[in-house]
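Fold this sequence, please.
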Amino acid sequence: MKAIFESFNNPEKEFVDFDAMGKLATCDNLVQKSAEIVEGVNNIWYEYIPKSYDGTKSVPLVVQVHGGGHDGKRWVDYTIWHKLAEQLGFIVIYPNSIEYQMWTCTDTDIEYLYDLIKLIQSRYNIDKNRIYMQGMSNGDMMTLAFSMKHPEMLAAAGFLTGPAPEEAIDGERPVGALPLIQFRGEKDVNWNLNPDTEDVYSVRYEMNDLNREIWLEANGITGLPALSIVGRQNFLRFKGSNAPIINWEIKDMGHREPAESAQIIWDYLYSGCSRLEDGSLKLENPIKNIEGDNDLVVLSAGGDKIYKKDKVVSIGSLSEGCAKIFHPSDPDTFFDKPLNEMYQTPDLFAPAEFFNAAFGAEVEYIDSGDQVVITFNNGMKVEMFSKSPLIIVDGEYRALKKPSVLLCGAFYVPVGIFCEEILNKHVSMADDTMCISGHFAQIGRYTARIIKNYIK
């Protein structure tokens, strides 16, 4: 047969609407239910009952609260709670808001969810000590309103991408402790922005701070958090004498619910939280516990300390002993346009004592401080010289991308460059804050903001 069509050229670019691809695993056994829970209203919710449920033993309950512009049924497409429910044998319900596609977060909404949970308990064999709630965006705000007033009904709560503004919280505070996980996308900044906004992050990040800080007293949190970064996932676990708070951030993510959020919430929090018969919290090790990374340090421009696992460590005793970003002056080049040549870009520098604070290395000054010898725990010896990119590593001459600098008695080293090129570490930056790690780790801007408050 003769070909009658010409072949199509493969385009170099293809435009795809990723935002239209947020749906996850389908849910085949979802059942719609309704009842007059609020007077005069036919309230609708959706239930997922795992195949293993036969009513002979009590099972946990998860209440998943949809975001604005949605309802319970449509929100099922954006979570994997039903998949986990089938694997682990718990029940999930997805209530519709009273108002059309929107939670008002008033007492009416709060009591609606309270009475709905009571109704589910009367119909199924629910473990009343293992009831959890999680909401996204407007559902985050609804979960906050409910959990502040009725923490005694829940064993833990999850809040995703929807911090409530101060005017909505209106001075209210939780009446009791509750284990929490609060997810914040690094680039979730869409709140009251206008073209004149100088810092597009500050408004949203201040709301994030407030939504965590209102729980500090109730949860008994006074100490430093444990820091763990796994790829783009940033975790800070505030232990608390009464209950923990986990701050979870994903690098580069905006206003959306992470596809794996149910798995993270269950593994890192819900799996270790329950209530005893007297109403007190029982906290055990969850499936995955956040204890902090032993191979990770954070430093920040203007700070004279570093953050290691769950501790703050001083870099050195010099008053100048703080990390700085050096911006090069305009260099003389053969070409009059900037190319970001290696000497033309700013970098974070820190005193040589950083290597002692971060890695326990010995630091020795020679020649009135113009030369430094650093001996690491594995025996590797590195000689560095001020005003020179040249270094000597175990007798071998090598060069860094930028030279070290001697200023006011402090020998500044381009520590990120050194750790990448000589120590084979992974280095990431956010908001003038550097994370140096022995594994792939990308620090998020909001996590950097929190850590900066401890080390500056």
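The chain has a mean pLDDT of 92. Residues 107-123 form the longest helix (17 residues).
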